[in-house]
Amino acid sequence: MRDLKYNKLLSGLTLSTKIREELRVDLKECLLRNSTVRPPCLTMVLVGDNYASKMYVDFKHKTCQQLGISSRLVSLDSSVSQEELLVVIDKLNQDDSVDGILVQLPLPDHIDKQVVLSRIDPRKDVDGLSPYNQGLLMAASSEAVVPCTPLGIVELIRQVEPNLEGKLVAVVGRSLLVGKSVRLLLENYNCTTIGIHSKTKNPQTLCQMADIVVVAVGHAGIIDKNWIKKDAIVIDVGINKDNSSHTVGDVNRDSVYEQTINLSPVPGGVGPMTITMLMKNTIKLWKKRFKIKTKYC
Ligand code: GUN
């Protein structure tokens, strides 16, 4: 019930519904105007049977179907060797019917994530996690494929604060998927960012100074009102289970509401936005490949 208090502009469900409809219409028009071009194709690679990963891949597959994107899944046993996985990626890199390749993370411990992500052809790197695309993001190049969760986070923040210039943003967590990449992206919007991690001195004091706080550590309730400035925007990227198996974020919601209503909900905040931005990136790579230009993306 207390969730009713949050600023509805931060609903990732509402914003996703709008953007997905725009993407669907844009794609349909593109295909009508380019009748010899096939629809975009996203191929996801899932290693092992991690329950959450399977669920996310399923959500992505269903969203592709709703938008007219074709999606394929390559499911591999958790015992697959790194070499075998690299062979799968090489084949997808060479497959002309595939526009986007996504290797669902996390990977089993015996596989080096960095080696695998580096093998994806940057032109098909729909997640933007290859060193090439990370380098382009660092160089603020408009050619960069930007990781989906950071893109979704920025879209949500801009609903509440369209002008990001000069804003002080604290990013709690430094993963490649979220923390590191969202800092690069926000710096490109002329924000000043502070990276907070387990070895940061006085993290709470730093966080309290921030106009915007992005939390992505994967630890339920780690941030409470004592970390948050009055009326700050707080983006909760965490997806955790509490003791009653409810899905909760990294932010102690009830406590933070005492400081600000600008808190993105979990579930229904960043999660749907990540999938929406994956669809956008897939269509973008497909358009680039077939040299299709529209106003939309
Ligand atoms: N695991 C959790 N989120 C993501 C994501 O955005 N991309 C990939 N590849 N794996 C994930």
Secondary structure elements and their pairing?
Layout: H1 12-33, E1 41-47, H2 51-67, E2 70-76, H3 82-94, E3 100-103, H4 113-119, H5 131-138, H6 148-160, E4 168-172, H7 176-188, E5 192-196, H8 203-208, E6 212-215, E7 233-236, E8 240-241, E9 247-248, H9 253-256, H10 270-289
The structure holds guanine (GUN).
Structure notes:
By secondary structure, the chain is of the alpha/beta class. It has two domains: 36-130, Rossmann fold; 148-270, NAD(P)-binding Rossmann-like Domain (Rossmann fold, 3-Layer(aba) Sandwich), CATH 3.40.50. It contains ten helices and nine strands. It has a four-stranded parallel β-sheet. Strand 1 (41-47), helix 2 (51-67) and strand 2 form a beta-alpha-beta unit. Helix 1 (12-33) packs parallel to helix 10, helix 6 (148-160) crosses helix 7 (176-188) and helix 6 packs across helix 10. The relative contact order is 0.16. Guanine (GUN) binds at residues 56, 102-105, 127, 148-149, 177, 274. Guanine is lined by residues 56, 102-105, 127, 148-149, 177, 274.
Keywords:
297 residues; alpha/beta; Rossmann fold; 4-stranded parallel β-sheet; 3-stranded parallel β-sheet; 13% strand
Summarize the structure.
The protein is an alpha/beta fold and 297 residues long. It has helices spanning 12-33, 51-67, 82-94, 113-119, 131-138, 148-160, 176-188, 203-208, 253-256, 270-289; strands spanning 41-47, 70-76, 100-103, 168-172, 192-196, 212-215, 233-236, 240-241, 247-248.
Strand order of the largest sheet: 5-4-6-7
Q: Note the main sheet.
A: 4 strands, parallel
Element order: H for helix, E for strand? HEHEHEHHHEHEHEEEEHH
The CATH fourth-level homologous superfamily of the largest domain? NAD(P)-binding Rossmann-like Domain
Instruction: Calculate Rg over CA atoms.
Output: 19 Å
CATH class call of the largest domain:
Alpha Beta
The CATH topology assignment of the largest domain is Rossmann fold
Q: Report the mean per-residue pLDDT as an integer.
A: 96
Ranges where pLDDT stays below 50 over 5 or more residues in a row are none
Class from helix and strand fractions: alpha/beta
Write out the distinct hetero groups bound to the structure. Answer: guanine
User: From the 3D coordinates, which CATH architecture of the largest domain would you assign?
Assistant: 3-Layer(aba) Sandwich
Helix content: 40-55%
Summed up, the domain count is: 2
β-strand percent reads 5-15%
Q: Treating each run of at least 4 consecutive H or I residues as one helix, how many helices?
A: 10
